[in-house]
Specification:
mainly alpha
Length: 412
C-alpha cells in the first residue's frame, strides 16, 4: 500500500493538490507553533539557582541568550585586536570563536527595528532560513525516497530535538541552508553554484573542512564508478577546485585571527579556552587530533560515578553503530553517496577537533539529512512514535538550555 493510499480520502485529495511549498510551509509553521509553546512553558522554569535568565525570562531573552550574545557583540563591536587573558596568563573566551556571516546578516535585517534590533533580526534570519532549509531538504529527499517520505523527513527536521534553533540567535540554521544548497547542487551536478556556498559556509560556522573531505571522497567514488557513471575532465576540475577552496576557507579564519591579533594561534587558543572551562588543565591547554574525545569520555564517566574506561567503551560502540548505519543501513543507503559521505566526513571532523560538552547535541545538527533514513520507513506507527520522541527531546533540550539555564542537565 502506498503512503497516499493509507491517507483518508479527503486528506489524500488535499495532499495531491497542495503545492509543495505550501505543504512544507504548513509543516514548518506547525512545528514553530509547538516550539513557541514549549519556549513559553520554559519561561516559567527560569529563575532557579544558577539560571542566567532570571525569574522574569521571556522568549525575547531566550532569542539573545547563550552564544547569541557573542554574535550580537560581534555585530556591535567587532573582534578584539588584543586577546583577553586570565589570571593564569591563558587566553579566555572571546568572540574570535564565532564566525561573522550570521552576525552581520542579522544586524542588517535588524536595522529597521532600531538600535537594539539585532535579536529581532537574528530571529527573522533563523526563522526564514529554516523554512528554506525545509524546502531544499524536501526537494533533495523527494527524488531519493519519494514525496511522502520527504514530507516526513521535513517533519522530523522541523520538529526535532533541536527545533528551538529555528527561533533563536544561533548560526546553525543559516549554515544548514548553505550546506543543503551545496549538497543539492552536488547531487544535481551544478558545480558552479557550490563556489559561493562554500565561502558562505566557511564564514558562518566551523565545519567546511568536512565538506572538503566529502568532495575528495566523492571524487574517488566517481572515479571508481567511471565506467557506469562517466566522469568528465570538467567535473574532475570542479571537484579539485571546490576541494581546494573548501580547504583554503577552512583555515582562513585562523589566519585572519592571527593577523588581526598578532598571535599566530589566536583562534586555536580561543577555542581551547572553552575546553578549559569544562575540564581545567594544568599548564597551557594544547590540541591534538582526536584527543578531545579520548580525554573527555573518561572524564565525563568519572563525573557520573562510573569507571573512566567505560566512557571509552561507549565512544567505541557509538562510532561502530554510526559507521554500520552509514554502510549497511537500508534507509541511509537510499539517501545517496553525497549525503552518506558528508555524514561520515562530518562525524570524523567532530571526532578529530571537538571536545564533547553541553554543545555536543547542537553540533550534530548538520547531520539532519539523515532524517531521511527514518522518513523512508512506511510504518505510520513508527513515524508517529519518532515524532513524539522528537518533541519530547525538544522539550528536554529547551527546558535545560533555556528553562533551567544552569550547568546541570536533568529530565523534566
Amino acid at each position: 500500500m502506498s503512503d497516499l493510499a493509507a491517507l483518508p480520502r479527503w486528506a489524500g485529495r488535499v495532499y495531491a493538490r497542495m503545492p509543495a511549498w505550501a505543504g512544507i510551509l504548513a509543516v514548518y509553521l506547525g512545528a514553530r507553533l509547538i516550539t513557541t509553546a514549549l519556549l513559553l512553558i520554559a519561561t516559567g522554569l527560569s529563575g532557579g539557582p544558577g539560571s542566567r535568565f532570571g525569574a522574569h525570562a521571556t522568549i525575547a531573552s531566550f532569542v539573545s541568550g547563550w552564544d547569541a550574545q557573542w554574535y550580537w557583540y560581534i555585530a556591535v563591536y567587532g573582534y578584539p585586536t588584543t586577546l583577553p587573558l586570565g589570571a593564569d596568563g591563558h587566553v579566555t573566551q572571546n568572540s574570535w570563536a564565532f564566525l561573522p556571516v550570521y552576525s552581520w546578516v542579522s544586524q542588517v535585517v535588524g536595522l529597521p527595528f532600531g538600535e537594539g534590533g539585532w535579536p529581532v533580526g537574528a530571529a527573522i534570519v533563523s526563522l526564514i532560513a529554516g523554512y528554506f532549509c525545509c524546502l531544499v531538504l524536501f526537494r533533495m529527499m523527494r527524488v531519493r525516497i519519494g514525496r511522502m517520505a520527504a514530507v516526513w523527513t521535513v517533519i522530523f527536521f522541523a520538529a526535532g530535538p533541536l527545533g528551538a534553533l529555528f527561533q533563536v540567535g544561533y548560526a546553525e540554521v543559516l549554515n544548514m541552508l548553505f550546506l543543503l544548497l551545496a549538497l543539492d547542487g552536488l547531487i544535481r551536478r551544478r558545480y558552479v553554484r557550490l563556489y559561493p556556498l562554500i565561502v558562505l559556509m566557511g564564514f558562518t560556522r566551523p565545519g567546511v573542512l568536512a565538506f572538503a573531505l566529502m568532495l575528495g571522497l566523492m571524487l574517488v567514488l566517481r572515479w571508481l564508478r567511471r565506467r557506469t557513471d562517466p566522469l568528465r575532465g570538467r567535473e574532475i576540475a570542479h571537484y579539485l577546485g571546490l576541494g581546494a577552496l573548501a580547504v583554503t576557507v577552512g583555515f582562513a579564519w585562523q589566519v585572519i585571527a592571527g593577523i588581526a591579533t598578532g598571535v599566530p594561534n589566536a583562534y586555536l587558543e580561543t577555542e581551547l579556552s572553552w575546553r578549559g572551562f569544562w575540564m581545567p588543565q594544568d599548564g597551557k591547554p594544547s590540541f591534538s587530533p582526536f584527543e578531545g574525545w579520548l580525554s573527555a569520555m573518561p572524564y565525563w564517566a568519572k563525573m557520573l560515578g562510573l569507571p573512566g574506561w567505560l566512557g571509552l567503551v561507549v565512544l567505541g560502540v557509538l562510532v561502530a553503530l554510526f559507521a554500520a548505519a552509514l554502510i549497511a543501513g537500508p534507509g541511509v543507503r537510499r539517501l545517496g553517496p553525497e549525503i552518506r559521505l558528508y555524514a561520515a566526513s562530518y562525524a570524523l571532523y567532530l571526532l578529530a577537533v571537538f571536545f564533547p560538552q553541553s554543545s555536543t547535541l547542537r553540533l550534530l545538527f548538520p547531520l539532519a539529512p539523515l532524517w531521511g533514513a527514518v522518513g523512508w520507513r512506511r510504518s505510520w506507527w513508527l513515524r508517529v512514535g519518532v515524532l513524539i520522541v522528537c518533541l519530547w527531546l525538544q522539550w528536554v533540550w529547551i527546558a535545560n538550555v533555556y528553562g533551567y539555564a544552569d550547568t546541570f542537565w536533568r529530565v523534566p
